[in-house]
Amino acid sequence: xxxxxxxxxxxxxxxxxxxxxxxxxxxxxxxxxxxxxxxxxxxxxxxxxxxxxxxxxxxxxxxxxxxxxxxxxxxxxxxxxxxxxxxxxxxxxxxxxxxxxxxx
Length: 104
Description:
The protein is an all-alpha fold. The protein is about 85% helix and about 0% strand.
C-alpha cells in the first residue's frame, strides 16, 4: 500500500510542478490554489509512505516520478524538445525508479 501511495504522491508532484507554469508566479488565483493543494497533498502522502519505506528510496522514487512526469508533460503540453538524449535520460530515471522498487 505504501508504494501505491508513494506513486500517487509522485503524480501529484508532477501536477504541482506543471501547475506552477499556469500560476504565472502565483498571480492567478485558481491555478495557484490547485497547485498549492497538490503540493500539500503530495507531501502528506510522501510522509505517510515514509512510515514503512526507507527515506532514501522513497524520496528518490518520489522525485524521479515527479521529474519524469514533469519532463514528459513539458514535451506534450509546452512543446519542449523530445531529443534522443532527453528521452534516454528519462529512461535512465525510470530504470532507477524500477531498480529502487525492486530492492526496496
